[in-house]
Amino acid sequence: MILITGATGKTGTHLAKQLAASGRKVRALVRTADKASALSAAGVSIAAGNGDSPTDVAAALKGVSSAVLIYPNAEHQLALEKLFVDQAVAAGVKHIVKLSSPEALEHMKNPVHQTHYRSEQYIKKSGLAWTMVRPNFFMQNFLGNAATIKSEGKFYLPMGDGRAAMTDTRDAAAVIAQVLTTPGHEGKSYDITGPAVLSFADVAGIFSKVLGKPVTYVNQDAAAYKEFLGKYLKSSWHNDAVCDIFREIREGYFMPTTNTFQELMGREPISFEQFVRDYQAAFS
Known about the structure:
alpha/beta; seven-stranded parallel beta sheet; two-stranded parallel ribbon; globular
């Protein structure tokens, strides 16, 4: 049995459905079962419970041999992941796969990066066999810009001339599935990127090409964007952390592309153009 946390999110949903379709026994830990009806229909068993409850996590882990740790970035994420790891050890889980970040490095100061780094270190010291899957900036983040792309032919972000090697969540899910279903991945960290480093002006050009209409990237003032984002994010911690990641990109930090995905999967990763084609209904 494979247990997946975060199975109703973008990466977790693809992963759970892919594993279930291949005949694997899959269980999803979700807060409420009614939000997981699509997973149930796909053959995924549902364990309703809260990630902050040792009792609920322990119940979900019964009979589980491999577990996938996918928690959203949040102020209490590290505590939740430590709780999960402790319960996994107690339940006799053999292998844990964590969805992490290429920036999970000791010297990176952003709280999201530090949370991933500290969680990785905790897992490595737990005695569990482990694999870290570390995709870069998700293409699906742009689904949050779909409304203005539709209505105005514009998207607003405070990235300046920054660039990113963007990754499709479906590729992240495919790598995790590969790790879970083929041997030899224990003790390894896989940094995953898309096929190209793109500026946000490049992204606008690809949207324009695929959608058949002009789409413009508007470089928004960082302070104004942070104020706007604060209307939607529940915590100032999260808002500060996200905007600091944007600052890193704006100031020139980017991760180069890697060949890891091709080596693991035997195919090219999904391009941004293919992402827009596949999600074209959301943008037009």
